[in-house]
Design brief:
Elements (H helix, E strand, L loop, with lengths): L2 H14 L8 E9 L4 E3 L1 H15 L4 E9 L3 E9 L7 E10 L2 E11 L3
Parallel strand pairs: 1-6
Antiparallel strand pairs: 1-2, 3-4, 4-5, 5-6
Amino acid sequence: MSPLETLQLWFATFAEDPGAARDLWAEGATLHAVDGGFTGDFDDLLAWYARRRDNEGAGFAWYVLDHLGGERYAAAVIRMVSDARPGGWQQNAVYEISEGKIGQVWLHESESAE
């Protein structure tokens, strides 16, 4: 499976059942939320995502706007929205992927309006 195919499967699985996406997370993989100074493993990712969802409140959702992949990395531009921030914000993520598993993720978020 290519990095792009792995990323597409990751998003489809995470949207349906975030816990089930663990199968695509490599042993020892790390998420780096660059802006928040957050680094963690898969369980930390689930807790971070739950906090984000709770903090943003009703209407919290995300949509993949675009993605691309190479031989070792894949990247995505993700639109995040909530009732509290209907203009939304953008998340840019780079995924290091090997043998169909995500090994590292670097996230950067910025306020933006479409």
